[in-house]
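Memo to structure team: turn this sequence into structure tokens by end of day. - J.P.
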Amino acid sequence: MKVWSKMQTNTFRVTLKSMPGSQFMAGCPVSSTKGPNETHEQFEERTWKEKIRTNKQGFVVLNQFALKNALEGAAKRLKRKIPGEGKSQFTKLFMQGVMVGSMPVLKTADGKACKPDDFVGQRLFVPSDGTRGGGKRVTRIFPTIDEWMCEMDVIVIDPKITEEVLKEHISEAGVFIGLGSMRVENGGVNGRFIVHAIKKVG
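Reply from structure team:
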């Protein structure tokens, strides 16, 4: 006999917009390998757009876990206590009681769905192993867009996470966590955003 469990969820449509001066930088792993006679510089020039995540339609998308992880990071920063539950904090609730819908499409500031050609390649002198403070450095090219926005559905399973609590944590994530490569969470300057709109849709 099958036993069905019915979850009560609330879905919020959230629109994020980049903060002035805070670019979005893509940094997905590159699957291509360097040719036998290809220099590092030639390889970067040939493959830098592969660092952009796209869907089947060729539009640029964000990994849905990017915002999920940003929310968890914000909860750890805020350390907000759950009303009526003593010292218990929202951190665990954001880890276990929140989902983000399918990968949202990144858009330009005027609302047009982004394609890789909307990005420019930014050359940075960075540690070769990707570890901050690493000794050996190389030039890498990162796909970058100056102004951006996206709309995504955040599915809240735990009813203790109200719309107000959700908005506070997303706002915190926008200022202190960010999205993408070289984001502020990791000591960078990219990926900051503001919550332009939030609306309950389900």
